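step 4 of 6: structure.
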Amino acid sequence: MSSPDRKLEARGSNADQIEYWNGDAGEKWARHQDRLDAMLAPFSGAVLSLASVKPGERIMDIGCGCGATTFDLTAAAGPSGRALGADISAPMIARAKERAAALGSSAEFLLADAASHDFAPGSFDILASRFGIMFFEKPVAAFTHLRGTLAPGGRTAFVCWRAFRDNAWAALPLMAAMPHLPPQEPPVPGAPGPFAFDEAVRFRGVLTEAGFGSIEIEPFDAELTLGAGAEPVETALHQSLEIGPLSRAMKELPEASRGAISDAVRKVLEANLKDGAVRLPGAVWLVSAKA
Ligand SMILES: C[S@@+](CC[C@H](N)C(=O)[O-])C[C@H]1O[C@@H](n2cnc3c(N)ncnc32)[C@H](O)[C@@H]1O
């Protein structure tokens, strides 16, 4: 087993996210990596086809988490290429390194804030990401920095969530739980979080200000399997309560409210059980741009 990296210092820009992804959230993602990867597999496929990696290319997987996409990108780049997964979460990078060893993959992993880490200029042909680019406190500065890591002609292949209301996997459980939650602050448009780039126009503006050109932002829809197997509804319930917007909203909630929330969420998940699995729609942007 590889020894875990020391946690990044949480200061300056992205300090809140460094705290968040090194706490309970990062631990849960590392623990449930298998299930999350199965759920998010359609979006790895989308990153891969958007990137259309050629053998020998050098790729950074931004916010790589436990490494699923980095492994696919490494395989696509072949022995003469390389893929580096960068992430601020020590537990998730530790899991990624363990998996690389177990798989015999040459994927490399680095505990680093991709928004500011001192990468060699021009050292990548592709910047890729499956849901790892929506958490920058200063997105224009972050993407300007990241653009500098691309070689001339370098490109991006990003996948990020569209609007919350179009993502039933997130919206349905949270809306069902809402009557049992304390009043929620309305989300700040563009604030770091899964839905920071829900509006294509906002993401386009950020990338343009950061100096990218040839920006293309296309919608892509795929179902997420929240639960399958022996107990699909209980698995989906556990998933919804542990990870994602509902779990964030339930932080610091008294134990007494949790039962009512479980019951309400279980009901909507049951209503979406079909052919032995709970599947709910997901809606993302496929984002390509040139340095
Ligand atoms: C929703 S998870 C996605 C993880 C992974 N890409 C996947 O699809 O399984 C978001 C990831 O972005 C990482 N992240 C957030 N801000 C980051 C930053 N500034 N630099 C590097 N990674 C970051 C988090 O630690 C987390 O692993």
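step 5 of 6: annotate
 - The first strand starts at residue 58 and ends at 62.
 - The pocket of S-adenosylmethionine is lined by residues 14, 17, 21, 40, 63-65, 68-69, 86-89, 92, 113-115, 130-132, 135-136 (CB under 6 Å).
step 6 of 6: archive
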